Structures are given as structure tokens and as C-alpha cells.
Amino acid sequence: SRISAPSCPQYPRLAMRVLAAAAALVACDVLNDKFTDDTYKQDFRLQYSYDQHTPEGEKAHFDIVSAAGRTALQVKILSTDKSFESSSGTCPRTELAQIARDALVENGEFEASWDMNVQEYTDGYWFALAQLFGPSRPNIFIRWEFSKYILWCENCDTVKSYFDGSPAEDKGKWVNWKMQFKLAQSDGYLRLYKDGVKVADVAGKTSNGGTHYFKQGIYTQHTCDNVQDTTVLLSNLSIKDVSGVVVV
Predict the structure, then answer these.
(1) pTM for this structure?
(2) Are 221 and 246 in contact (CB under 8 A)?
(3) How many CA atoms, within 13 angstroms, populate the side-chain half-sphere of residue 186?
(4) Which region, left, alpha or beta, applies to residue 57 given φ > 0 means left and ψ of -120 to 50 means alpha?
């Protein structure tokens, strides 16, 4: 289900609100999707193989299911999938793309969190599981590539941050991913946590300017003709504007 943010009158630059009793700043929701029903489609465009755009094809790639102890969004890419548009030269993907493309503003501070459960994976398939997409091209990825997890930032002073783990190790487990970020040309930051453990920390330049938007799912990397049947479950996505709020 989709939960609307309270007291956020200025969208996409979502305002902070003050609790009178505590006089404390409270984070404001940019996105809050539990993925328990189809209302997530109000927030995302579905990007998947262009030759599968039928009700049956959509369900084969995106489906609300009961699995691994939860109701969640099942996201699946097939070995026969093509690019998401016939005119696109990009690799196959089954990916959610945030509709509000100006929601993640320059110099804003945000926290994104979601749960993912790898259900099906073949060793040697490389993919991105989340992106922060810039004004004209991808900027920040969480990728599994060359047998390594990577926080990859095209416009950061530190482009690649490697960390331990693998989809094979994560298979069948609910894993919480959390990214705290400020998109800025000089004083930005990226902090990535996996199950509460900080695995990457980047400071300095994180953007060439402009707004970003969020994408997640399965996006083939490196070799477009090496696509393997892969399935993940997604649950409990939230993105909060935490500008001015101390986050830990």
C-alpha cells in the first residue's frame, strides 16, 4: 500500500514540520510504499522488456505476491528479455522508475530505505539493484558486478566503493538497504548501510547539479547479452527528506 506523507505542503521540495510539544524537526516522506498492493504504480513507471507490454507480460515481471513471510512486490527479469524500449540501446531491465523526476533536489538531504529478498539468481549475472538518476543520465548505482558489490557514483570524487557480500549469500533472506545522501557539487555525502552495517561512506562532490529520481529493481550491467532469470522481492520502501534532521 502507499502511505501519503503528512504535513508536506511543498512538493517536490518537501517542507519540514515542527512538533509543538517537542519542538523537534521531523523527516518528511517523499515516497512510502509497502508494496502490498498495486498503488505503488501511482509513484513509479514500470520499465521492462518492450515486447512484453501486455497484462500477462507485466504480471510476469511485476507481481504482488505472498512469499518469504510477507506480501511483497515480486520483480523478475527473464533471460529472453530485451531493452525496455525498442529504440533504446540500454541493457534489459525490470525496474521501477520514480514518476516525480524532480523530487530529490540538489543540496537536499535524504534517507532511502527498503527491504529486498533475492529469490532466484545465477552466478555470473551482473545487475544494478538501485539508482539515483541525474538530470540526463545515471549518477549513483548500487551494483553487483565482477563478483563484487559496488556503490558506484559517476559524479563523485570517489567513483567506486566496494563492499562484501553477494546475491548468492543473500538468497532467501530479507536484507535491509539504507542510503543517506546529499546531492551536491562540493559538500555532499553518500552513506550506504546493509542490515544496519555501514558498508560505504563517500564525502565531497556527489552530483554535477540538478534534481535526481529513484529507481530500483533489476537492471543488467556490463554485458547486455548475458541476462539470466533473476527474481527479487521488494518491501517497505521509504524515502524521507531529512534536511536539517540529525540521522544515524
Answers:
(1) 0.90
(2) no
(3) 0
(4) alpha
